[in-house]
Design brief:
Structural class: alpha+beta
Number of domains: 2
Radius of gyration: 22 Å
Helix content: 25-40%
Shape: elongated
Low-confidence stretches: 48-82
Mean pLDDT: 79
Amino acid sequence: MVIFIPEGTKIDHTRPSSFYDGTYNYFKEIGIKELKEKVFKDAESIQYSITAKKPENNIRRISDKKVEVKTIINKTKNTSNERLAIGKLVRSKMDELINKDLLSDQEIIKLQRADYSRQTLHIQYPLLKRALHSDSNNIPRYWAGKKIIRGNEYFICSEWYEQPSNNDRPHFLAWYRTIIK
């Protein structure tokens, strides 16, 4: 496992120096060691012996003043698996669940409740809001456009966050995995 701590900055309010520098120093104090170039050279040679040839562009460098980290990318993995922003991830996975008709009537009822969505998905609004005849195609806190789920029209919540203090990704993915099983 590699833990990457970005350098804090005064320019970007989402990366305060006091938070990141403190975290970096704490990890050093409890004995987590910085990765050195030798570790990656050893890993690189292991990777070569596994693949029996030197993969192209398999190392990327991320540098800042505090640490230097190299990430080895396994070229056998699907390159379309880039980390999607949480909103795009939710939209694509919800489209998948809707298209495959994997949302039960009971789950649809639960997803219209704020308490269930808060507890299960870590969001402040119901994931689904049933569209009324009087609703326009765009309502606050929900993506524009109605989705038809089991014959009814719904809006899908657009309020998703991925910050250190409020990360909805693991909650959504855990819920998604239970639905597709």
